[in-house]
Amino acid sequence: MNNKEIVLDTILSQGMLPLFFYEDAEVSLEVIRTLYRAGVRVLEYTNRGKEALSNFHIIKKAVSAEMPDMHLGIGTIKTGSEAEAFIEAGADFIVSPIIDSEVARVADKHSKLWIPGCMTPTEINVAQQHKARLIKIFPANIVGPAFISSIRELFPGQLFIPTGGVEIEAGNIAEWFRSGVCAVGMGSKLVSRNVLDKRLYDQLYNDTVKALELVQLSK
């Protein structure tokens, strides 16, 4: 099984993809350690600030040493040059808020899983033309679970992961899985700015354990 398949299988079995960015590299790393202790084995660090690349280098080195079974991806990738830089820094997979053919090409060249963001049936069709195995529905809070239920039969076999607005609530997570998604993205509802600024690692640990349990019950 190649790296692309291993990452995809890990996302599917975990059923949840945590994602966050923080300016401080050490806090970012402590968040990842906390997520790991809670049971997370695949996560997305996002390219949302000028420190993202330098932080990623630091994080990747520590993750490789301390958490060798952790798959660390990079999100908010919009250009081929960004994709190249983070793959060189050790990114295991690439997540985009959009479809960009150059990002798709770079990911394919390096045999990395690429997860593009879509919001319409036309965009999903374009993503499929670029051979996207897993498609991010973003921003998911705008379209809601009903969107997945409505379009999934148009794209049989396509894997979807909603990101944006997924709540750590049994009803919310269950509704997304009933609509036909294979996993959910968890950003600020899990790793909130308050958790990051106040270093609320115990809260993050407990919330992550709860979210993972709700996902497994909902799948």
From TrEMBL:
Q: Domain of life here?
A: Bacteria
Q: Which pathway does UniProt place it in?
A: Carbohydrate acid metabolism
N-terminal signal peptide:
none
Q: Which UniProt keywords apply?
A: Carbohydrate metabolism, Lyase
Record's subunit section: Homotrimer.
**PANTHER family the record matches:** 2-DEHYDRO-3-DEOXY-6-PHOSPHOGALACTONATE ALDOLASE-RELATED (PTHR30246:SF1), 2-KETO-3-DEOXY-6-PHOSPHOGLUCONATE ALDOLASE (PTHR30246)
- Name it: Bifunctional 4-hydroxy-2-oxoglutarate aldolase/2-dehydro-3-deoxy-phosphogluconate aldolase
Q: Which organism is it from?
A: Mucilaginibacter aquariorum
What is the taxonomic lineage of the source species?
Bacteria, Pseudomonadati, Bacteroidota, Sphingobacteriia, Sphingobacteriales
